[in-house]
Design goal:
Beta Polymerase, domain 2, 4-stranded mixed beta sheet, 27 helices, 52% helix
Length: 554
């Protein structure tokens, strides 16, 4: 028989979360489902009839689950499945909840949405899947997906999923767990294992998901699963651009982006995902570059991750062992709240500024292979790789169906990523800091993405020199970074965006000129000279405009 209310002391049993078979009070077998426990017991006690019970596992469900249960009929079978169960078992908080039901996924989702005053979306009519979207006060969202079993029953549904740690179900009615593939043990072993030999070929986007989750949870991917991932890589072309995009940007927004990209390259994914990256491997560079273009790119991702972490985390009195990070925090650490505010923003609710910046870092040197030239001296040059790379990257994210604003921001970052190097080299070699006009032009061309350019420039430098970087060069870059950010955040009206003294109509009236390109040119020249401190009022602006007009076309 099946007893659903075992004694409380069983909560702390080594069998917690498992079904066990008892004969005369003694546990003789166990399994992830009642059927597995029964079959296991019959191998050794085939003449005896065991008692099958569930050994409770302790975790706390979020209050939202209670509201969902209250909205459903009392006899409604419903299971929490997938990542939410995995996170609960691993003491993590989930923002997405998937529910499996025997039938009526869409209608029950609508019922729940109406009950808790949330938004409803029929997600997949064919699979009878409905989505409930709960909006939080801070602007974040919680997604609740209600889907009918993919298969004849719950166990078939679980076996059809991606990885065993995501193939665990929690019965919300009797508080038991169904784990037919032993995903709970894999979770404890920090192992990502495919549910079946066809898991990856059934849905190749799972290749990216495995890499992302390995980085996010610090898990390792089981050997056979890695082989299945390699075999399925050439099928990524049949996946929609949006699904590929979402996984790529989740990877870049998560921990260890460098390790994740390295893993994808080793798995042979890039020819079918971002083919333009493949040409970067093995392209040698002259000093001071230590690495080839691809290895340098990976190093930039790693250093960018470290730099952002250092600047967005409150270190207090914590001692920084890395001298370069120590200097970074000394010079820019007081802008910690500014950096946090910057990365809290986004151009799209599903993608962050951080992920877009990391994509820019991934593609910042993408055109070096095609622009490579070798001079007679043996020095390698990559003329206009920044400009051409911006176009290549923009084409890729357009294929991924990013928004126009996101495409433009990415384009701006890659096109302008060499400007920081120019500023710093001039400071180190000629002792000249960027002028007020140069700072104005930098942020005029980059806007809010100028902050990203500063961070990418620092990471790019670390990725160029690696262990050969000197304190003197690092200090020069930090001085430029501080100067740019200080003006952007502390003196915006003085240098970054001076108040408008004249409009186009004013110029036409005062100077008796007709509409044309010259109007915009004069207005921009006035603003540049305001930023430089040479024009302070309307009269000076008009006088300057008259002088420029008298000079004629330049």
């Amino acid at each position: 028989m099946q007893d659903q209310t075992p004694p409380p002391e069983q909560t702390h049993s080594p069998y917690a979360g498992r079904w066990v078979a008892r004969v005369r009070g003694k546990i003789v077998a166990q399994g992830g489902t009642p059927e597995q426990a029964l079959r296991a017991s019959q191998h050794s006690r085939y003449k005896e009839k065991p008692e099958i019970t569930f050994m409770p596992v302790s975790f706390t469900l979020p209050p939202l689950i209670k509201k969902i249960m209250d909205a459903l009929p009392a006899d409604q079978k419903i299971y929490l499945v997938g990542g939410a169960v995995r996170d609960l078992l691993d003491s993590r908080i989930s923002s997405d909840f998937d529910f499996a039901l025997p039938s009526n996924g869409i209608s029950l989702a609508r019922k729940v949405a109406n009950s808790i005053n949330a938004d409803f979306l029929p997600l997949d009519d064919e699979r009878d899947t409905g989505r409930v979207i709960v909006a939080n006060e801070d602007g974040s969202r919680i997604f609740l997906d209600f889907a009918v079993y993919r298969g004849a029953n719950l166990e078939e549904d679980l076996r059809a999923r991606d990885f065993t740690m995501n193939a665990i179900a929690y019965n919300l009615r009797d508080e038991t767990i169904i784990d037919p593939l032993d995903g709970g043990n894999d979770l404890r072993e920090k192992l990502i294992r495919a549910c079946s030999q066809t898991s990856l070929s059934d849905d190749p986007v799972r290749i990216l998901r495995a890499v992302r989750q390995a980085a996010a949870f610090d898990f390792h991917i089981e050997k056979n699963t890695r082989e299945l991932m390699k075999q399925a890589a050439n099928q990524l072309g049949r996946i929609s651009p949006e699904r590929l995009r979402d996984e790529v940007f989740k990877i870049l927004n998560g921990p260890k982006p460098e390790a994740s990209m390295r893993a994808l390259e080793m798995l042979g994914v890039f020819p079918y995902l971002m083919p333009e990256l493949t040409a970067m491997k093995g392209v040698e560079q002259s000093d001071p570059h230590v690495y080839d273009v691809w290895t340098h790119t990976l190093a930039v991702l790693d250093h960018l991750d470290q730099i952002i972490s250092a600047l967005c985390i409150d270190h207090g009195s914590e001692k920084i062992s890395d001298k370069f990070t120590d200097l970074l925090i000394q010079k820019l650490g007081h802008y910690q709240s500014r950096f946090k505010q910057h990365f809290d923003k986004s151009l799209n609710v599903d993608r962050s500024f951080r992920s877009l910046l990391f994509f820019s870092a991934l593609y910042h040197d993408v055109s070096k292979p095609e622009t490579k030239t070798v001079e007679e001296s043996g020095r390698t040059r990559f003329f206009d790789h920044d400009v051409k790379g911006a176009e290549v990257a923009a084409d890729r994210v357009q294929a991924f169906n990013l928004s126009t604003n996101e495409v433009e921001r990415l384009h701006v970052i890659i096109k302008n990523h060499m400007r920081i190097h120019f500023f710093a080299n001039r400071l180190e070699n000629e002792k000249q800091t960027p002028s007020r006009k140069a700072i104005y032009r930098f942020f005029r061309d980059s806007g809010e993405a100028g902050v990203d350019l500063v961070l990418l420039g620092l990471a790019d430098l670390r990725g160029i020199y690696v262990h050969t970087l000197t304190i003197e060069t690092w200090n020069a870059y930090l001085e430029v970074a501080h100067l740019l950010l200080e003006n952007y955040w502390e003196r915006p009206e003085e240098i970054i965006s001076p108040p408008r003294l004249l409009g186009g109509n004013d110029l036409m009236k005062e100077l008796n000129i007709h509409p044309g390109p010259v109007i915009g040119q004069l207005l921009e020249s006035i603003r540049e000279n305001q930023a430089a401190g040479k024009i302070e009022n309307r009269e000076q602006a008009l006088s300057f405009a008259r002088e420029e007009l008298a000079k004629g076309p330049s």
